[in-house]
Write a structure and sequence with these properties.
By secondary structure, this protein is α/β, with parallel strands linked by helices. The chain has a single domain, classed as TIM Barrel. The strands form three sheets. Strands 3-4-7-8-9-10-12-13 form an eight-stranded parallel barrel, surrounded by four helices. The chain has a three-stranded antiparallel β-sheet with strand order 5-6-11, with no helix packed on it. Strand 3, helix 3 and strand 4 form a beta-alpha-beta unit. The longest helix is centred in the middle third of the chain and has 17 residues.
Length: 348
C-alpha cells in the first residue's frame, strides 16, 4: 500500500509528510497481528535486562514528543525510542530543516531537538503507559546555561515510565553537544548522572548515543569511562555531518546530520571496533542504513545486540519491520542459527 501512496507523500515537504504520519498513527487503526510473521520466536532478544520479541527498534527522531509510541509497537518493532526530549519545550531550527536525498536513499536533518518539553512528555507517557519496551532519549536545550543540569533534570522527570534512557551526546545540530564525547567532559557528565541515579534511587538502564565521526583513538577512552560509571550500553551511531563527497543528490551539501544508506558501512565498522573492545561488557545498539533483513544481520554480526532504524521507514514505509523480520528469519535459518543472539559479533 505504501508504494501506491509514496509518490504523493514524496511530493510533500518532508516535515509536512512526517507530521501527516504522526497524525495518521494517532488513529491507531492497524491491527497488531497484521505485522506478525511466522517463526518470530527465533528473533527473541534480551536487551538491557528486558526480553523483547525481536531486536528491531525505531530510533529516536521520529516520535520526538512521545505521541504515537503505542501505535509504533503495533507495527512490529521490538522496542521504540522517543525524543530527543529537552527540559523545556523547544521549536528547533528554522525551516526547511529536513531534506530527502532520494538518489542516495538518505536524509539530512538539522531539526535541533524540536519537542514539547519534559513536563508535557512525562505527563503524556504517564497518561498512556507504554505497551512495549520504551526508550527515552534526553538532551539539553539549545539556549541553556548548563547542559549537564539539563540532562539531570530530564533524567529526574522521565525515568519512571522509561524502559531505558538514552544520553544523547552526539547530535551535530546542537552546538557544543559533541564536546561531551571528550574524555574529561564525559567523565563529569556521567559522574553527575550517577549521583542523580543514587539520590533518586533510579535503577533504569542508561545508554549513551555516540557520533559516527569519533576517531579510533577515542573509542578506548569512551568505553573505559562508560564501564567505570556502569552505563549499560551504547548506541552506535547518530547522524554524520561528514561523508558528503560520494553522494549523488544535489541536496548533499545541506547543513545537518546525514542518515540512511551512506552511513551504513561507517556505522557497521564502528560497531565492530566497539565490540572488539567490549566483548559483552556493555550492550551495543546498531544504527545506520538499516532497511532490510540483510543490513540488520550485518550490524548484528558486527556486534550489535539490537538495531534501530528511521530513514529506512521513510523510504520503505511502515511495513518495513515485517519485511526485515521475514528476511532476517530466513537468513538465520539458512545459516543454521537457532536464535538471533547466536549471530552477535560472529563477523567482528
Amino acid at each position: 500500500m505504501y508504494s501506491i501512496f509514496k509518490p504523493y507523500i514524496f511530493s510533500l515537504d518532508p516535515e509536512v509528510a512526517h507530521d501527516l504520519a504522526i497524525k495518521s498513527l494517532k488513529f491507531n487503526f492497524l491491527p497488531k497481528h497484521f505485522f506478525k510473521v511466522e517463526d518470530e520466536e527465533i528473533l527473541d532478544t534480551n536487551l538491557l535486562n528486558e526480553k523483547l520479541p525481536n531486536p528491531i527498534g525505531l530510533a529516536a527522531g521520529f516520535d520526538k514528543s512521545a505521541e504515537v509510541y503505542n501505535s509504533l509497537f503495533k507495527l512490529g518493532y521490538g522496542f521504540v525510542e522517543v525524543g530527543t526530549v529537552t527540559p523545556k519545550r523547544q521549536l528547533g531550527n528554522p525551516k526547511p530543516r529536513i531534506f530527502r536525498l532520494e538518489k542516495d536513499q538518505a536524509l539530512i536533518n538539522r531539526l535541533g531537538f524540536n519537542n514539547h518539553g519534559s513536563e508535557v512528555i512525562s505527563k503524556r507517557i504517564s497518561d498512556n503507559l507504554p505497551s512495549g519496551f520504551l526508550g527515552i532519549n534526553i538532551g539539553p536545550n539549545k539556549d541553556t546555561a548548563n547542559k549537564e543540569e539539563d540532562y539531570y533534570l530530564c533524567l529526574s522527570r522521565l525515568f519512571s515510565n522509561a524502559g531505558y534512557l538514552t544520553i544523547n551526546i552526539s547530535s551535530p545540530n546542537t552546538e557544543g553537544l559533541r564536546a561531551f564525547q571528550d574524555e574529561k567532559e564525559l567523565e563529569n557528565l556521567l559522574q553527575g548522572i550517577n549521583k542523580i541515579k543514587k539520590d533518586k534511587n533510579i535503577s533504569k538502564p542508561l545508554v549513551v548515543k555516540l557520533s559516527p565521526d569519533i576517531s579510533s583513538g577515542e573509542i578506548s577512552k569512551i568505553i573505559e569511562t562508560i564501564i567505570k560509571y556502569k552505563i549499560a550500553g551504547v548506541i552506535v551511531s547518530n547522524t554524520t555531518d561528514r561523508n558528503r563527497e560520494n553522494l549523488a543528490d544535489n541536496k548533499k551539501n545541506e547543513k545537518g546530520g546525514l542518515s540512511g544508506q551512506p552511513l551504513k558501512n561507517l556505522a557497521t565498522n564502528l560497531i565492530k571496533k566497539f565490540y572488539k573492545e567490549t566483548r559483552g561488557k556493555i550492550q551495543i545498539i546498531g544504527v545506520g542504513g538499516i532497511d532490510s533483513g540483510q543490513s540488520a544481520f550485518e550490524k548484528i554480526c558486527a556486534g550489535a545486540d539490537a538495531v534501530q532504524l528511521y530513514t529506512g521507514m521513510v523510504f520503505k514505509g511502515p511495513g518495513i519491520v515485517k519485511e526485515i523480520k521475514k528476511e532476517l528469519i530466513s537468513i538465520l535459518k539458512k545459516e543454521k542459527l537457532k536464535n538471533v543472539s547466536e549471530a552477535v559479533g560472529i563477523n567482528a
